[in-house]
TrEMBL record:
This is Dyp-type peroxidase. Residues 436-461 are annotated as: Disordered. Coiled coil: none annotated. The keyword Metal-binding applies. The keyword Iron applies. InterPro entries: Dimeric_a/b-barrel, DyP_N, Dyp_peroxidase. Belongs to the DyP-type peroxidase family. Its cofactor is heme b. Keywords: Iron, Metal-binding, Oxidoreductase, Peroxidase. Signal peptide: none annotated. It holds the Pfam family DyP_N.
């Protein structure tokens, strides 16, 4: 039951025991890489983790991380098993985590081209035991940390690196589809930093309007009170879960040429193409929100952390004449738009960390060049079903909640090119055929068993 005292009081987060990547946004520009490791010998695996964890940046060290680069680590269910975690303890993890995303593909809408048999090996397989990400402001800092990471594997034949994916900021500082991303992030109670403050240039902006109500830390971290007033059940023993969380790790291939052709085919001028792109996402490519800039892009608005997120739907755009009801942004965080329904939007927020991979498709190119490009997408929260799976299955791949029947998210819905995308307009709405799928999922879910450094060592118990 809700404990009113714990709800009212701000919880103190154990920041030095929480991986920094959970609570902090990475400054840009950056260069980085993701690695997956397989553990064939539990002793070697534990030894490797014991060596690695002192180099993991905590939320307190984030601004001055070891080696001036950021290392984060996560373990999958099969990884915990490979480390020798007892079955009783393994059984205390939730089904969604134990089963993994490949087994739950149907409910996640990972079908057709995005179904698990098309995922890059070893994504989605039981071989991916440990995920490590390394990010740095420049190549020298990155190399220095990578050298340290290699050292942790020295003389440990029972641990192998089975996958590497380089993922760095693009020269455009945007994502492959041309959008600025990473603006909408929840404010986490007790995290000690306002959303976005550092992404927007490192200053202390204090309170930033529009980021919605501050959300209880228990929505994002295990061991704290959540929005329902209780602590999300923790896998046992506590040492495996406290200050940790779950991560859906996805590699999303983006069909950039397809997107550009879709805009061209459905618009009569470059300006109209930009507007259509904005209607699909809910923001102009600069990041300026349609609700505040319905006709034209507004670069000053996009650059202003006090205004870029300061809008609502129910109050300012109830019929979706500015930002369509089915736009990606509005679906993924309906803000006040569901105020009249039973849905509590605060129960479906989560943290996002996205990194582009692959080369940019040259500006103006409309034909696919065959290169692998997309985003590595990390979706982080304490309840995989209520957060990640709900967003994917209900808000992305269903339109009922906004009165759009079975219309899907125009950017990341499991579209096959036969659906529709409705743009409310007066006197007559515009209804386009959806683009063919713009993304292909190649994902895998791993838990950030971010009980930060100590936990990995404790894991031997
Ligand atoms: C095809 C891959 C995707 C692309 C290109 C993409 C792109 C974007 C862009 C450009 C924004 C606006 C920037 C911002 O507000 O931060 C955004 C926001 C967002 N996206 Fe995505 N996204 C993708 C996949 C996903 C997935 C898979 C999810 C969740 C399951 C998701 C959840 C969100 C959320 C929660 C927001 C913030 C909404 C808000 O707070 O107003 N996105 N995305």
């Amino acid at each position: 039951m809700a404990d009113s005292a714990s709800q009212a009081e701000e919880q103190v987060l154990e920041l030095d025991d929480i991986q920094g990547t959970l609570l902090r946004l990475r400054p840009t520009p950056f260069t980085g890489a993701y690695f997956l490791l397989r553990i064939d010998d539990p002793d070697d695996g534990r030894q490797m983790l014991a060596r690695l964890v002192p180099h993991v940046a905590s939320a307190t060290q984030w601004w001055d991380p070891p080696h001036h680069a950021w290392l984060s680590v996560a373990l999958s269910y099969s990884g915990l098993r490979a480390l020798g975690v007892p079955q009783e303890s393994l059984d205390s993890f939730p089904d969604a985590f134990r089963e993994g995303m490949a087994a739950r593909a149907e409910r996640l809408g990972d079908t057709g081209d995005s179904s698990p048999e098309h995922w890059d090996a070893p994504l989605g397989s039981a071989d991916a035991h440990v995920a490590i990400s390394v990010f740095a402001p420049d190549t020298a800092a990155m190399e220095s940390l990578l050298e340290t990471a290699r050292e942790t594997l020295r003389d440990l034949p029972g641990v192998s690196v089975i996958y590497r994916l380089d993922a760095s900021a693009l020269p455009s500082k945007r994502t492959h589809l041309g959008f600025v991303d990473g603006i909408g992030e929840p404010d986490i109670e007790g995290s000690g930093v306002a959303s976005l403050a550092h992404r927007m240039g490192g200053g202390d902006y204090g309170y930033l309007p529009g980021f919605g109500p501050t959300i209880k830390a228990g929505e994002f971290l295990l061991g704290y009170v959540n929005e329902m007033g209780w602590t999300t059940p923790m896998p046992q023993p506590d040492v495996l879960s406290r200050n940790g969380t779950y991560v859906a790790f996805r590699k999303l291939h983006l069909r950039v040429a397809e997107f550009r052709r879709y805009l061209k085919d459905n618009a009569s001028s470059p300006e109209e193409e930009e507007l259509l792109a904005a209607k699909m996402v809910g923001r102009w490519r600069s990041g300026a929100p349609l609700v505040l800039a319905p006709e034209h892009d507004d670069l000053d608005l996009a650059a202003d952390p006090h205004r870029v997120n300061d809008f609502t739907y129910h109050e300012q755009d109830p019929a979706g004449l500015r930002c369509p009801l089915g736009a990606h942004l509005r679906r993924m965080n309906p803000r006040d738009a569901l105020a009249d329904s039973l849905v509590d939007v605060k129960l479906h927020r989560a943290l996002r960390r996205g990194t582009p991979y692959g080369p940019m498709l040259p500006e103006g190119e409309l034909e696919d060049d065959g290169a692998e490009r997309g985003i590595v997408f990390l979706f982080i929260g304490a309840d995989l079903v209520r957060q990640y799976e709900f967003l994917k299955s209900q808000w992305a791949n269903d339109g009922d909640f906004v009165g759009l029947g079975n219309e899907k998210d125009p950017i990341m819905g499991s579209n096959d090119g036969t659906g529709t995308f409705t743009i409310p307009k007066r006197p007559v709405r515009r209804r386009l055929q959806q683009a063919a799928p713009l993304r292909r999922d190649q994902g895998r879910r791993v838990p950030l068993h971010a009980r930060h450094p100590r936990s990995e060592v404790d894991c031997r118990a």
